[in-house]
TrEMBL record:
Keyword tRNA processing included in the entry's annotation: no
Any one GO molecular-function label of the UniProt entry: hydrolase activity
Entry keyword set: Hydrolase, Signal
Fibronectin type-III domain: residues covered: 388-491
Keyword Signal: yes
Gene3D superfamilies (UniProt xref): Glycosidases, Immunoglobulins
Protein's UniProt name: Glycoside hydrolase family 10 protein
Length: 491
């Protein structure tokens, strides 16, 4: 029997700016073209059922936003430090367009990288020039030395600047903490270790540096805007079972705990992050790290925080001799069907945007016609906000030549001060059981607290309908329902 579609599901996509992976497609394009391209990307995702975007706004100690103490990004304008022409603030623009479509905007930062490659040309006032003593040279890049307390404070200041100045829904970090290992390369942080080791061995000290940074970021975000979500997307394997009985039944050569010094399980267990989005970029047939086994492990280690699976859509049609299943047109459907078996999995984030917009192996069609055919609301986070808004007031319905027109009035703020952020309209036939958990009954999501009118143009003449309207707040808590009965007239 087919599963009922979920009413609550985080459906997101990463929009990568580094190296112009997703947006802008060409560096230095005129501002109007950048905006038009971003709108097109958003519209394609919205039509496919996506309800959140995770946009990379700082890829190498640079900025895709105006209110920054770091220089404008090379990937935006073609020259680091050069503002867009004609001038605009890309982040303000992207947030507004995303919110106008009823989608969440998560600001994605890369925190370890100061330069992208040895060929990078940076401004004279770039942090790598102003603070060379903060930098580690590794793999031809300059990386932040996260063992220095002043570096962790700097990274925190970059993030809190965004939280204060922009209306973001989430702060998001990827999998780069300490660098992925390169043969013959050594992280030269001996002097910092000597100064700050505090009796720890080198590996534990590095992990503790990252722990301190994650904890510091959590506290800072919480203090400034408690509703802003904090999430991390780590490399998928925490530890293998052979390394720790608590690890996953995988035999991968790389782990976030031992190789990247990221104790990701601890951050979830201790409630330091609101969500974790492990990069499960392995197919169901990959022997060392099979998709199902790694997903099973995260289901057991979600610790009542949100778990979104990072889906490797970029691997579609790119099978390797060791991981052949990516050429199977059903691979992504197999993964998404598997996820839906678990209430502990709250959704997916796809890497990356162009994998969906290019419709690799029909992946976007599959979302549009199957998995995301019906709308889904973003799951609430009761540890951040347990209180629903008050219900809409004075709901009325009338039959018009255009269809059934609904009106209501914005509710008063809830006891916690939250107003309605948007409304959901459900429709039932007169004899139906009223079940607002069934997303197939949603006929409209009305975005904006003042959007208190809706015309249903899909009614049948002479039918009797029951409409139910609810209010939702910023963190997607849903009010008690209000309902009205109406008979559709001849149209």
């Amino acid at each position: 029997m087919a599963q009922n579609p979920p009413k609550r599901e985080f459906r997101a996509v990463w929009i990568a700016t580094v190296d112009n992976i997703d947006w802008p497609s060409v560096r230095g394009m005129p501002a109007d073209s950048q905006r038009a391209e971003f709108i097109k990307i958003l519209d394609l995702h919205q039509r496919a059922g996506i309800n959140a975007v995770v946009v990379q706004i700082r890829a190498a100690a640079d900025a895709f936003y105006a209110k920054s103490f770091e220089p404008w990004s090379f990937w935006l304008t073609g020259k680091q430090g050069l503002p867009p022409v004609p001038f605009y603030d890309p982040l303000e623009f992207m947030i507004r367009e995303t919110h106008d479509r009823g989608m969440e905007f998560h600001a994605w930062f890369n925190l370890d990288r100061a330069t992208f490659s040895k060929l990078s040309v940076v401004t004279s006032d770039h942090i790598s020039n102003r603070k060379p003593e903060w930098m580690l040279q590794y793999g031809g890049r300059k990386l932040f030395n996260l063992g220095l307390p002043e570096v962790r404070n700097y990274v925190t200041r970059v993030v809190t600047n965004i939280v204060r100045n922009y209306d973001v829904d989430g702060i998001h970090f990827d999998d780069y903490f300490y660098p992925y290992g390169i043969a013959g390369q050594v992280i030269r942080d001996e002097a910092t270790y000597k100064a700050y080791a505090n009796g720890m061995n080198l590996q534990n000290w590095r992990r503790e540096n990252i722990n301190q940074l994650i904890h510091q970021l959590r506290d800072s975000i919480q203090t400034i805007k408690p509703y802003v979500k904090f999430g991390v997307s780590p490399f998928g394997v925490w530890k293998n079972r052979s390394q720790d009985p608590e690890g996953s039944e995988t035999t991968g050569g790389l782990t976030s705990f031992f190789d990247l010094y990221a104790d990701t399980r601890k951050w979830v267990r201790d409630g330091w992050v609101d969500y974790i989005a492990p990069q499960v970029y392995f197919s169901t047939d990959f022997q060392k790290v099979p998709y199902r086994l790694l997903t099973d492990w995260w289901v057991k280690n979600g610790f009542n925080r949100h778990l979104y699976i990072g889906q490797g859509a970029f691997r579609i049609n790119r099978s390797t001799p060791r991981d052949r299943a990516w050429n199977d047109p059903n691979e992504m459907s197999t993964q998404l069907n598997y996820n839906r078996q678990f209430s502990q999995i709250h959704g997916s984030i796809f890497f990356s945007s162009k994998s969906l917009t290019d419709n690799l192996n029909g992946v976007r069609d599959t979302l549009l016609t199957n998995f995301y055919r019906y709308p889904a609301l973003i799951p609430p986070m009761p540890w951040k906000d347990p209180e629903p808004p008050l219900p809409p007031k004075e709901l009325k319905a009338s039959s018009t030549p255009e269809g059934v027109e609904l009106f209501w009035t914005q509710p008063d703020p809830a006891p916690d001060g939250d107003k309605a952020r948007y409304y959901v309209v459900y429709r039932f036939d007169r004899k139906d059981k009223i079940d607002t958990e069934d997303p197939t009954r949603i006929v409209a999501i009305c975005v904006g607290e003042n959007t208190t009118r809706f015309i249903d143009r899909t009614t049948s003449p002479d039918n009797r309908y029951i409409y139910v309207v609810t209010a939702l707040d910023r963190l997607h808590n849903e009010s008690a329902p209000v309902q009205v009965n109406v008979r559709a007239s001849e149209q």
